[in-house]
Design a protein that fits this description.
Elements (H helix, E strand, L loop, with lengths): L1 E5 L3 H9 L5 E3 L2 H7 L3 H11 L4 E4 L5 H12 L5 E6 L2 H12 L3 E7 L2 H9 L4 E4 L1 H6 L4 H15 L4 E4 L5 H10 L3 E4 L1 H6 L4 H17 L5
Helix pairs in contact: 1-3, 4-5, 6-8, 8-9
Bound molecules: erythose-4-phosphate.
Erythose-4-phosphate binds next to helix 7.
Enzyme class: transferase
Catalytic activity: D-sedoheptulose 7-phosphate + D-glyceraldehyde 3-phosphate = D-erythrose 4-phosphate + beta-D-fructose 6-phosphate
Family: Belongs to the transaldolase family. Type 3B subfamily.
């Protein structure tokens, strides 16, 4: 499973990249707002840090405008992945951009049929939003399982990018179902390493080691 980080915070991205844990980054207009940065500047900085796909989202809702914005965003770096919303215009832009050889992430997916359309439009990634479905009392993970089933039925190579992840449990369940990628908020990504028995065990080993009076090397 690939790990993308879901943020436009350059400090977090740099830290996680140095740990060797990052395969890519996703941003969206809300995350750009939160960063307080200019989209072109911050996206360029992110692309210079991370080698993998960096999703940058169009703000237009109409096909021709989306294509103009996609052209601007594409010029930022070679690893830009254009993010388009799951609308008819977004799907049309997806087909046009992937035909030109661009990576496209189709975002705001809340149903298996929407994911089927995105795959038919040649999407590189489909982003089902787990947490936002959970918020409505619907099991978001069930959507990941449905999409996995459909994509495997027909051999679509669109990658399932589990998005709107809110917990480490979400990451585990998405991995068990076979999502290709999870885009994870920085704090949740770092929390994956945590286990109380790891902390307790390490404490005991360090204490016993100190009692040996030895040094390695
Ligand atoms: C995905 O690419 C989106 O940026 C993101 O996962 C949305 O998550 P949220 O529902 O926590 O805003």
């Amino acid at each position: 499973m690939k790990f993308f980080v879901d943020t436009a915070d350059v400090k977090d991205i740099r830290e996680l990249n140095e740990l060797g844990l990052l395969d890519g980054v996703t941003t969206n207009p809300s995350l750009i707002l939160k960063s307080g940065r200019n989209i072109a500047e911050v996206t360029k900085e992110i692309c210079d840090i991370v080698e993998g796909p960096v999703s940058a989202e169009v703000a237009a809702t109409e096909y021709a405008e989306m294509m103009k914005e996609a052209a601007v965003l594409s010029k930022i770096a070679d690893n830009i992945c254009i993010k388009v919303p799951l609308t008819l215009d977004g799907l049309k832009a997806c087909r046009a951009l992937t035909s030109e050889g661009r990576m496209v992430n189709v975002t705001l997916c809340f149903s298996a049929n929407q994911a089927l359309l995105a795959a038919k439009a040649g999407a590189t990634f489909i982003s089902p939003f787990i947490g936002r479905l959970d918020d409505m009392g619907v099991d978001g993970m069930e959507l990941i399982a449905e999409i996995r089933h459909i994509y495997d039925n027909y051999g679509f190579d669109t990658e399932i990018l589990a998005a709107s992840i809110r917990s480490t449990e979400h990451v585990k369940r998405a991995a068990m179902i076979g999502a290709d990628v999870a885009t994870i908020p920085p704090a949740t990504l770092k929390a994956l390493v945590k286990h109380p028995l790891t902390d307790k065990g390490l404490e005991m080993f360090l204490s016993d080691w100190a009692k040996t009076g030895q040094k390695i090397g």
